[in-house]
């Protein structure tokens, strides 16, 4: 039995790479939604960070599923939370320096949400959470890190890429690596396999 | 302060890639030791799987450190254990099919050992352990998996590459991703940073 092609409602190159590495037949389509507006609206309702990630993943999946009603569509979102505060990606080096300075020596959470649509309806959802602790970083170190890694780190919230040199910023990482990269692969593959969408 | 160059006493391309991705200045040198003979000798002494990994990592580090007495040398080994039994890499497709059949539906451990030498003496060691559970695999699925992935999987003990399609074989993975890939990166980087071997 052939695998059902998956449509990834995301422009994230690492998510696409993770799925391709796992041998999943997948194409990517960017789902353009106004994430900042949704986040702000949800923040005003005191939504929890994990619920914000779930809502954004759902919105992206639904948008692409509307255009591909017969398809299998995966929406994804990742939220970085410091306590109940949700952070957005840094847009300038100054913001990145500020974010790294605030994360330095502290613990934060990454919530990675997945929502799967089939036949234009949500059929499965999952939220994975990881807990990361940054070691205390000096100002000079942060500046040198950004000199070496900007603008690449601007694509990641928190201004670090843990799959590259960013791993050196951490003293402790608890949680699934795929969740940290923004796509909890294992529960997704289990579900796809269970439902016969991929060979098993 | 410049990073101290690290000599990786291993021919494993993924270990080299992990260190390079993390921005570590590293070169690789294969440490040729008779692993099979060491494993067999240790098995006869009822050595625990984690101790076998530690001993092999130490032997590799020492061999390269003897040739580079002033250097910073990292020895690594990974052992796959089913209970107290240690497995070796499959040499033929038939052996790989047999290994996957035995791992199917069961839990096994991966022990990844690191031993660091400096000035020809061991200065640090670490063993990370991960617990992996494979879902029940049919014979047809195993054969199709090997058709697609042999001989690449022959380089990994257990005949799967979890960083590729092999992730689809698993129902549960507990433990650090870097430990599963054979190089527990986080404790290594913490130590290198603490001792000033890499910038921090």
Key attributes of the depicted protein:
homodimer; 200 residues; alpha/beta; Maf protein; 7-stranded mixed sheet; 7 helices
Low-confidence stretches of chain A: none
- CATH fold annotation of chain A: Maf protein
Q: Radius of gyration of chain A, Cα only, in angstroms?
A: 17 Å
Q: What's the overall geometry of chain A?
A: globular
| Biggest β-sheet strands, sense, barrel of chain A | 7 strands, mixed
Q: Tell me which CATH architecture of chain A applies here.
A: Alpha-Beta Complex
In oligomeric terms, what are we looking at? homodimer
Order of helices and strands of chain A: EHEHHEEHEEHEHH
Helix content percent band of chain A: 25-40%
Largest interface: A-B, 27 and 27 residues
- What structural class results from the helix and strand content of chain A? alpha/beta
CATH class of chain A: Alpha Beta
DSSP helical segment count of chain A: 7
What's the overall average pLDDT of chain A, rounded? 94
How many domains of chain A?
Answer: 1
Number of strands of chain A: 7
Strand content of chain A: 25-35%
């Amino acid at each position: 039995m052939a695998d059902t092609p998956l449509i990834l409602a995301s422009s994230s190159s690492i998510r696409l790479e993770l799925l391709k590495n796992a041998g999943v037949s997948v194409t990517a389509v960017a789902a353009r939604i106004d994430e900042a507006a949704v986040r702000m609206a949800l923040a005003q309702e005191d939504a929890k960070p994990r619920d914000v990630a779930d809502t954004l993943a759902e919105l992206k999946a639904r948008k692409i599923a509307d255009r591909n009603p017969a398809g299998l569509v995966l929406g994804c979102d990742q939220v970085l939370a410091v306590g109940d505060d949700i952070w957005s990606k840094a847009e300038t080096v100054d913001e990145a320096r500020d974010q790294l300075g605030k994360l330095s020596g502290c613990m934060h959470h990454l919530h990675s949400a997945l929502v799967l649509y089939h036949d234009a309806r949500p059929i499965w959802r999952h939220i994975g959470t990881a807990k990361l602790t940054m070691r205390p970083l000096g100002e000079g170190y942060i500046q040198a890190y950004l000199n070496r890694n900007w603008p690449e780190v601007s694509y990641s919230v928190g201004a670090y890429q843990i799959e590259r040199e960013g791993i050196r910023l951490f003293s402790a990482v608890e949680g699934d690596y795929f969740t940290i990269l923004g796509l909890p692969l294992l529960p997704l593959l289990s579900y796809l396999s269970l439902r016969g969408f991929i060979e098993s």
